[in-house]
């Protein structure tokens, strides 16, 4: 029987990052500007490594290539999903991502990037940028060229526990004081539209990608509303946030002991709060806040016991 793959996250420093990943999850971060924890990743720019068990020391990419059966022989050349925890200590650039077709042609075969956010925490009155007000491509170009950001960008107030689905082609940005778990296609392609005229340590402004950004932005903005469903079962409350083309994402609130069945090609788990036990077959694993693991194919029945908030996803 396959065993859970517990993973060592990778950290990425960003101009907008901070120290929340250390303060909240106890991670050993590289600096006080750590913006991203790549928690479950098979992307070449940052691969998660298995921490324990028979596959210890191997990356997700290696296992995808050489042990594809672990993932139910899921039909994709690459591990399709990427789970991140983002510390937006300052505003992220206003940006947009391409879809699969555009990225394949223009980004060397990279996947497109549809993503979604679960707001773990945020400061009071926090907001994010989600969409724009332009009705035509011409209006969008004119507003961008004249720097009319206050009129162009749609801003949304947020609170902990909110969920946002962000399809490719959506202009968006996390804003200062936000801690987010992001589930996305495995892509590292971002087109910056606006960066608040910030400069780096050497006084240079970060590159913008306006031509590509304007080509891929959906006009008019498509305000996708997802329907949240809540199901109660013994020892658990299951909240379904989205079941979409690239991924399904849920929150599992465990309070007590609850039995589940792993009947997907593979499932991704990120524990954002609490601690407890994962039981698979005859093995029991202690797990808690800040842990990330994959349950591969053929796991079958498993139980979770304790008090935990877990973000769960699968392709």
UniProtKB/TrEMBL annotation:
Transmembrane segments: none annotated. It catalyses: D-mannose 6-phosphate = D-fructose 6-phosphate. It comes from the Bacteria. Its cofactor is Zn(2+). Keywords: Isomerase, Metal-binding, Zinc. Its EC number is 5.3.1.8. The active site is at 192. The keyword Hydrolase does not apply. One of its GO terms (biological process) is carbohydrate metabolic process. GO terms for molecular function: mannose-6-phosphate isomerase activity; zinc ion binding. It is an enzyme of class 5 (isomerase). Residues 6-118 form the Phosphomannose isomerase type I catalytic domain. SUPFAM superfamilies: RmlC-like cupins (SSF51182). Residues 237-315 form the Mannose-6-phosphate isomerase cupin domain. PANTHER family: FRUCTOKINASE, TRANSCRIPTIONAL REPRESSOR MPRA. This is Mannose-6-phosphate isomerase. It comes from Peribacillus cavernae.
